[in-house]
């Protein structure tokens, strides 16, 4: 998106070049540092809790929040009040189903999604926010509850390094499993190609929103899935079911693009309709877009209040 590129500044590293870096944590560091250099002046000060005001100390208050400098000046005890009681608790949910292994070029959707998740984790960990991770196919494969302690980031990167077995996509069951293990409200960021019926997405995301969680949906697609510029008739195989279908692109391209666009629009409406933020990216777009869009979503919520 041109507006985003202008806002961020100069061009960023090409995803294909970024994927040549074997270490996920190093990839994430490269993206975050490039992002921060691109933002010359940023109105965003992180997602962590912000100080709000003072109130006088009463017995039973946590003494950790006493302001000793103010006590030295006034000889009275005051407690710092905060907008929220804890830092952000973020759950990164990454789709590792078979369809995520598709690539018309050098970058698979899985590599792009896990690098995006690693980038967000690196970014939030630097702010001492608690970050967790769940990878899923037709069920949750790996789950790390949100933590801000030392070693959490390395553990998270190790999980993302593992290649998924690649089964069919099931959004409802995995998100229910993660939500059930999450008694406190937090931020869920879903990375998936969402090649599922719109109703399933609406139900899954709607359940999270009904439980009080904030949700950001990042749809990851291959550029060819949007454009469908194939020119030769051939057998096409469903990545998840294995079903094969003979397709002549000359006759199918127009209908495919129409259906794909309609599905994409319906997905956006379904997510926004239940109060989630939605962004659609392709694997040839800079990873900095993920951070920029995430900050914009948080800023909008900050100005307009929680939905």
TrEMBL record:
Gene3D superfamilies from the xrefs?
Answer: von Willebrand factor, type A domain
Database matches in InterPro entries: DUF58, VWF_A, vWFA_dom_sf
Q: Where are the transmembrane segments?
A: none
State the superkingdom. Answer: Bacteria
Instruction: Name all VWFA domain ranges.
Output: 87-250
Which PANTHER family does its entry note? Answer: BLL2464 PROTEIN (PTHR33608), DUF58 DOMAIN-CONTAINING PROTEIN (PTHR33608:SF7)
Q: What's the protein name?
A: VWFA domain-containing protein
In its UniProt entry, the species of origin is given as Limnoglobus roseus
Organismal lineage: Bacteria, Pseudomonadati, Planctomycetota, Planctomycetia, Gemmatales
């Amino acid at each position: 998106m041109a507006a985003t590129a202008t806002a961020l500044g100069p061009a960023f590293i090409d995803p294909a070049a970024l994927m040549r870096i074997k270490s996920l944590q190093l990839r994430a560091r490269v993206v975050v540092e490039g992002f921060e250099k691109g933002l010359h002046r940023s109105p965003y000060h992180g997602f962590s809790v912000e100080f709000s005001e003072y109130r006088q100390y009463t017995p039973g208050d946590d003494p950790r929040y006493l302001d000793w400098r103010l006590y030295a000046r006034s000889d009275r005890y005051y407690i710092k009040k905060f907008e929220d009681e804890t830092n952000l608790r973020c759950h990164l949910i990454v789709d590792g189903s078979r369809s995520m292994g598709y690539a018309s070029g050098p970058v698979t959707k899985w590599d792009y999604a896990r690098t995006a998740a690693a980038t967000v984790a690196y970014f939030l960990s630097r702010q001492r926010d608690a970050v967790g991770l769940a990878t899923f196919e037709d069920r949750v494969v790996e789950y790390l509850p949100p933590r801000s302690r030392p070693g959490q980031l390395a553990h998270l990167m190790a999980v993302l390094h593992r290649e998924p077995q690649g089964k069919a996509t099931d959004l409802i069951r995995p998100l229910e499993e993660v939500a059930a293990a999450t008694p406190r409200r937090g931020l869920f960021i879903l990375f998936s190609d969402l090649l599922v019926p719109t109703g399933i997405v609406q139900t899954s995301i709607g359940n999270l929103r009904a439980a009080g969680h904030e949700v950001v949906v990042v749809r990851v697609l291959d550029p060819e899935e949007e454009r469908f510029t194939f020119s030769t008739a051939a057998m096409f195989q469903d990545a998840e079911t294995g079903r094969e279908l003979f397709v002549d692109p000359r006759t199918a391209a127009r209908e495919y693009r129409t259906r794909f666009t309609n599905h994409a629009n319906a997905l956006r409406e379904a997510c926004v309709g239940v109060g989630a933020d939605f962004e659609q990216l392709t694997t040839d777009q800079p990873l900095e877009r993920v951070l920029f869009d995430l900050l914009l979503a948080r800023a909008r919520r900050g100005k307009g209040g929680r939905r």
